[in-house]
Amino acid sequence: MDLSTPTWRKSSHSSGNGGDCVEVARINDTVAIRDSKDPEGPKLLLPLPALASLTRHIKNA
């Protein structure tokens, strides 16, 4: 999967927190997640259903 061309986005809520945030990019049916301080570093790739499940789990924790 080519991760050099997607448009990476971060939450508008992430400004002002010292740069501790993640960025996401959608690539077809997958979401790539990376550390905004290390854009060349590792990326976590999740299928959309897995991201939805993770988000629900976090909100319910």
Automatic annotation (TrEMBL):
Q: Where is this region: Disordered?
A: 1-21
Specify one Pfam family: DUF397
Query: Polar residues compositional bias: what residue ranges?
Result: 1-15
Output the InterPro entries linked to this UniProt entry. DUF397
Show where the DUF397 domain sits: 7-59
Name of the protein in question: DUF397 domain-containing protein
Q: Which organism is it from?
A: Actinomadura syzygii
